[in-house]
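Lecture notes, unit on protein representations.

Consider one protein chain, 317 amino acids long.
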Amino acid sequence: MSTGRLGLVLTSPRVAPGLLSHPAWAAVSAADVLLTRSADEPLAEAMTDAGLAVVEVGEHHPAELARALVDRAAAEVVVWLGSSDGDPGLSDALASEVSRLETPPEVELVVGSWDVQGGRLLDVVAAMDRLRSPGGCPWDAEQTHASLAPYLVEEAHEVLEAIDAGDPRALAEELGDVLLQVVFHARVAEDAGEDGFDVDTVAGLLVEKLVRRHPHVFADGDATTPEQVEQEWERIKAVEKESSGGGYAQDVLHGVPATLPVELAAAKLESRMRRRDLVADDAALAELEAARAALAEAEARARAALRAVADAARPTT
């Protein structure tokens, strides 16, 4: 019988449970016994599928489980297959249990897998699945693209506000709210059976677009300056738009949403004109500037009125 030792194999729930690191496979292969809370745990199932015997111990309080593991590891090489919830409280209970013994068994933490960059995005998708599934949130379950639309606009403006404030923490949080809207809309589409449209469709189309519009990175394009990149982007986009219906090359405002704020639409127009090496009529430019100034003045009055209404608001009773 081997001298006693306790190994704890911890894995990421976002990585396939059978894809273990070499040290983790060495640990489970050399163990006298593999223990798990439940035979249904993903890591336990993977070990069973690999032909290894796994013993189910059931639910126990962390202190009780820690004592049982340490006692058994006094004479055996024991490996605990970490549960998908991370076995809350077990590590502290083990530390307490080992510290009370005069000659405790060796305890080793073995990392079986690590999260890859972007792994938490899978958690976002899983959380949305829980919210929209039976037994989830009734408010989330009844939302549609139309009902969610105002939130997307609002969250985008909150991102802009965080950028202006120069607050990285606030920016990260607001970007998360925008990400929520993307995942939410994708799940609404999936539930409605909208032409196979789901979050993977969204991600796949984005990757295809990034690759297609960056030939200088992913193919044999030769753009080397930001200006050349912009011009190539414009050329590729024009080809895409013409093949899908036309009008982009002839109309500098083609595809710019009619609801886009005028300031953003004007910036879009200026950018396109620069990339296409176009100039505007002086009189038309002057009219646009006058209209923008009048709009800014009207918006300032409207916001002052909003503030006044908010300040004068009182309880109805």
